[in-house]
Task: inverse folding
């Protein structure tokens, strides 16, 4: 299958970043390299991109796509939370722009076999970086009822967190949970039909919560916001695209509370109806942008 991922809010990101010849930009979520390619085009002939992705498959595809830009591109298979030490290793002290495009690529969600989606029967893995130890299956089979309820409630914002975690504990008594479809069935049966959400799959929030926990997503976001801010040049731009309210709230608060940043987006920028029609994944995207105004 050909790997595709349509980059979200691409024109808007390029308009805010305004990449320039000679500029240095960090793409924290390379994915298949769509945003990076646009940044490199816009900053031709001398702009540079340092790209992070911890998913080996994504990185390999991005590498092929961005090969034509030669030494203008430097890609790292690393957690973006290491931005500070990684840039230091490269001898880069400050940058003109940083982009975060959080969450999963279409490759991971639709094309993958790591149990991120509700489709088919796949091992319940959910690691974006397969060098990490904790899988979603290990977590659902070993965490206590209370820990699971907290994960679903706080990371998934799932109101039925308690009955769902109780049903998981009950199921675990007779057999282990190894696949996504087992978990989907448990959730569907634990929540009375009248409480099933209308617009999303009944297991969406449980899957979101687990994915966030397995990949430590909120801790990584919090670290990259702080360390990324410290790497921006004066007027350097921080663009963050998020896909759920937990992330968006974190970004909004961080930008508002950080005196060194000036917020450019009072309200988040959202995709046009046309973009949502062409790319279903774009519908929940929110872009927030701030610039580094200085240390005083
Ligand atoms: C939405 S996709 C990015 C798509 C990309 N902007 C494009 O245009 O193709 C998000 C990517 O970020 C990666 N990712 C998520 N969290 C990460 C982290 N903490 N460190 C490094 N990569 C991460 C995922 O593996 C995924 O490939």
Result:
């Amino acid at each position: 299958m050909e790997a595709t991922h349509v980059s979200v809010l691409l024109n808007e990101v390029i308009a805010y970043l305004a990449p320039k010849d000679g500029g240095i930009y960090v793409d924290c979520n390379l994915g298949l390299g769509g945003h990076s390619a646009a940044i490199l085009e816009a900053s031709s002939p001398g702009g540079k991109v340092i790209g992070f992705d911890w998913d080996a498959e994504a990185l390999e595809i991005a590498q092929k796509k961005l090969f034509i830009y030669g030494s203008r591109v430097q890609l790292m298979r690393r957690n973006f939370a290491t931005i500070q030490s990684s840039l230091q290793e490269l001898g880069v002290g400050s940058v003109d722009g940083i982009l975060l495009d959080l969450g999963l690529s279409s490759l991971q969600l639709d094309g993958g076999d790591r149990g991120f989606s509700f489709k088919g029967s796949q091992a319940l893995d959910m690691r974006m970086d397969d060098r990490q130890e904790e899988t979603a299956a290990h977590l659902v089979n070993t965490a206590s009822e209370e820990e699971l309820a907290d994960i679903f409630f706080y990371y998934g914002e799932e109101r039925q967190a308690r009955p769902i975690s109780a049903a998981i504990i009950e199921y675990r008594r007779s057999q282990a949970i190894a696949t996504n479809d087992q978990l989907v069935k448990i959730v569907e049966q634990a929540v009375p039909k009248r409480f099933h959400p209308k617009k999303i799959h009944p297991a969406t929030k449980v899957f979101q919560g687990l994915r966030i926990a397995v990949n430590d997503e909120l801790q990584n976001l919090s670290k990259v916001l702080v360390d990324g801010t410290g790497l921006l040049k004066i007027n350097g731009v921080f663009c963050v695209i998020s896909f759920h309210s937990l992330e968006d709230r974190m970004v909004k608060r961080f930008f508002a509370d950080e005196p060194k940043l000036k917020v450019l987006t009072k309200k988040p920028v959202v995709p046009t109806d046309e973009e949502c029609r062409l790319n279903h994944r774009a519908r929940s995207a929110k872009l927030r942008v701030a610039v580094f105004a200085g240390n005083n």
The mean pLDDT is 95. The CA atoms of residues 98 and 155 lie 25 Å apart. The domain at 133-214 is CATH 1.10.150.170 (DNA polymerase; domain 1). Residues 5, 7, 29, 31-35, 52-55, 58, 79-81, 101, 103-105, 128, 220 surround S-adenosylmethionine (CB under 6 Å).
